[in-house]
Amino acid sequence: MPVKGTIVVDEHLCKGCELCVGACPQNVIALAMDRLTPKGYHPAFLIAEGCTGCAVCALVCPEAAITVYREGARVKAAV
Amino acid sequence: MAIPQIDMEMVYERPEALTDTATHYCPGCTHGIAHRLVAEVIDEMGVRERTIGVASVGCAVFAYNYFDFDWVQAPHGRAPAMATGIKRVLPDRVVLTYQGDGDMASIGMGEIVHAAARGENITVIFINNANYGMTGGQMAPTTLPGMKTTTSPNGRDVEQMGYPVRAAELLSTLDGASYIVRRSLHDPKNIRLAKKAIRTAFETQVRGLGFSMVELLSTCPTNWGMTPPEAMKWLEEKMIPYFPLKDFKVHPVLAEIKV
Amino acid sequence: MAKQLWKGNEAVAEAAVRAGLQAYFGYPITPQTETLEYLSKRMPELGRAFVQAESELGAINMVYGAACTGARVMTSSSSPGISLMMEGLSYIAGTEVPMVLVDVVRGGPGLGNIAPSQGDYNQIVHGGGHGDYFPIVLAPASVQESVDMMALAFDLAEKYRSICAVLTDGSIGQMMEPAELPPMMPVRTTYPDWCATGAMGRERNILSSIQLDPPMEEVVNFRLARRNQEIQAKEVRFKEYYLDDAEFAVIGFGSAGRVAMTAVRAARAEGIKVGLLRPITLSPFPVKELEELSKRLKGMLVVEMNSGQMLEDVLLATRFRVPVEFYGRMGGMMPLPDEVLAEIHELVKGPAQLDVHPRDRWLKRMEAMV
Predict the structure, then answer these.
(1) Do B188 and A60 lie within an 8 Å CB cutoff?
(2) What is the C-alpha to C-alpha distance for residues B98 and B112, in angstroms, rounded to an integer?
(3) What are the Cα distances from residue C52, in Å, to B36, C61, C92?
(4) Of B48, B72, B113, which is closest to C65 when you measure between CB atoms?
């Protein structure tokens, strides 16, 4: 059973740079083309099931906009 | 923004040493990654309240808006000298400078070489993105041969404009330097290694071991005319061959510690 | 404390130490290197900070950093080195942190020579760095005065969060005179709220001179201008000799004022009713005093070791109410009492033309000599 995780992207900070999209090993992040952040960017969001809470997206995010959650995690991700 | 109710454990969140202010950096600019790593290290070491940052002149001129600790603003290139002044009167504080190509390796070359030569117990974060970002993409001492910038419109011609400067190599020749390394921010693996290097650099300082500098190969998507992911690829393919990722100087005591 | 024989540059150094100097950053340049050398030994002795920087540029920025922590900090240099510091001085003024600067002026412009001069008056008094800022400037004329002005310089700098410059010259720096040094004051232990010392238990402090928003930058500029007004109202200092019944006055600062003193005494001995006004603060300038004098005197003679820099401030303060003559030596040449006495005789002979600039009349008179 793969570990379950999820992310929350702070849309006040996200600039839609897509680095997380490319970095996600599960390919479950994309930019939301149907909406804009207050600054006019398309924010990143989870598009499907499959997030494992690996935190690689948070690792590459230049805005520190991503908070990562993981089921049953006892230690913080080694980001 | 409402945080949804989540039953899982939180494994990563924005470092405390960063303020809530959204940055002015371009989307995908690695300044953001470097800032985040420095903030994470400062959080992990528990030194936020005794850290004093010296901001330089470049895109990161407003670095002091993004970190929740004391900052001072240096003239272009002079941050290592200001940091020296601060550290000499307050030796128990953690003093860092955050500088770009022009600031550290052009106008500030005298100050950085001598701060390193004197073995000043400060930490320098050097952002190398091969151009002058803030002023619109001019040639920098780190611009690659053949690379087009606004002041080398036909590509850097080494006959007329000379060769790039490898700052980490240069500074590592100084006996006063204790930890001089080059890392990159272009992919997750290298970002992890960069964070370890930044941590080691700050450990150099708090253990009183002397001068530390981490050169971070960085992107400038806007002035390079690329998307952020393209810029990361360009860094990997073009910059790393010229600016190798290595440890150039490591104090023997540092070799023992694990971060 | 008994009087001892002190070399000017070293007396300045020790006086600063006794005033609680916490950090000194400098670079060798003749004729002030003795200050650097003296402190290279004295500061480590007391566990205080000392660095010989890579250049004056490095030195002023080290001062800037230390000043941001609230420490009592100074640097010293001489004309070409001071020019290198101008960038840093403007930043320090814009950030409103206190520091003390000692300029031991030498012949110039350019590389010049190592002989005494007053050619930096405009650069120091009228702010040689970019932008509108107003340093406080003190002008000693002897080793004792240099000593006395060090504690005053730090106090004024901190009171007004300003640069306080002590403008001397190569002769005062190099000469040896008896002087009495004050007792050792303790180094400060309390610091103002604005200092960048690490945000322990408080909101963070940011010290910067950048202000991208023009209305906000203007606020800063108004603050600096009003502070200067306050300084002008409260901190003028000068010395006056034989002015009560004077019909003529010589105006001179530093060594020029000191040489003029000898000439004034000689003139008095001849029965000429002449006095001396020697500004101690060049900024704030003794405008009121000169205004008053201009209303009752028959003539003034400005003596300087430059081509007439304070002269312009005297003309402004006296507003052509009274004839003003000028006598200057430059490039490291020292005016001698006999020369100044001859000028006093010329002044007294009168009447001087008010329509030709005193500098032009002086240049004409000097044609015979140089």
Answers:
(1) yes
(2) 12
(3) 35, 12, 20
(4) B72
Write the CATH number for B132. Answer: 3.40.50.970
- Considering only alpha carbons, which residue of chain B is nearest residue C194? B70
The pLDDT of residue C2 is 87
pLDDT digits (tens, 9 = 90+) for C139-151: 999 999 999 999 9
Under 8 Å CB pairs connecting chains B and C tally to 131
Domain count, chain C: 2
Quick check: B72 and C68 CB within 8 A?
Answer: yes
Burial class (CB in 10 A: 0-12, 13-18, 19+), C365: middle
pLDDT of res. C305: 98
Residue from the list A53, A60, A75 with its beta carbon closest to the beta carbon of B191: A60
| Mean pLDDT across chain C | 96
Same domain, C155 and C297: no
Nearest to B191 among A59, A72, A76 (CB): A59
Q: Which amino acid is at C250?
A: V
- Say if the Cβ atoms of A60 and B187 lie within 8 Å: yes
Domain with C139, as residue range(s), is: 4-234
CA-nearest of C167, C50, C42, C149 to C101 is: C167
CATH number assigned to the domain comprising residue C130: 3.40.50.970
Query: Using one digit for the tens of pLDDT, what is the confidence trace for B18-59?
Result: 999 999 999 999 999 999 999 999 999 999 999 999 999 999
CA distance C145 to C148: 5
| pTM (predicted TM-score) | 0.93
In a domain, B96, yes or no: yes
Q: Is the pLDDT of residue B1 over 50?
A: no
C195 and C274 co-located in one domain = no
User: Chains near C, with 3+ CB pairs < 8 A?
Assistant: B
Nearest to B23 by CA among A64, C256, C235: A64
Which domain covers residue B237, as residue numbers?
31-256
Contact yes or no for A23 and B15 at CB 8 A:
no
Q: List, for residues C80-112, the tens digit of each pLDDT value.
A: 999 999 999 999 999 999 999 999 999 999 999
Same domain, residue pair C76 and C121: yes
Q: Do A79 and B40 touch (CB under 8 A)?
A: yes
Q: For the domain bounded by A5-70, which CATH number is listed?
A: 3.30.70.20
**Which of A10, A13, A70 comes nearest B11 by C-beta?**
A70
Residue C181 shares a structural domain with residue C259:
no
